[in-house]
Amino acid sequence: MRFISTRAEGGEWFSASDAILKGLAPDGGLFMPESIPCLPDSFTLERGAWYAMYQALIPYFEGDELEGDLEEICRSAFSFPVPFHSEGGKDTLELYFGPTAAFKDFGARFLAFSMEKLLEKRNEDLTILVATSGDTGGAVASAFHGRNHLAVKVLFPKGRVAERQRMQLTGWDGNVSSYEVDGSFDDCQRMVKEAFMDPDLKGLSSANSINLGRLLPQMAYYVYASSIYQLKYGEEAVFVIPSGNVGNATGAYWAKAMGAPIKRIVLACNANRPITDYLETGKYEPRPSLKTLANAMDVGAPSNIERLFAMFPDIEAFRDNVSAYSVTDDEIRKTIKEVYDESGYVICPHTACGERVRRDHVAEPYSVVVSTAHPAKFNDIVEPLIGREIAIPKNLYEIMHKTPSSVEIPADYHLLFS
Question: DSSP labels for 80-119?
Answer without folding.
Answer: S---EE-STTEEEEE---STTSBTHHHHHHHHHHHHHHHH
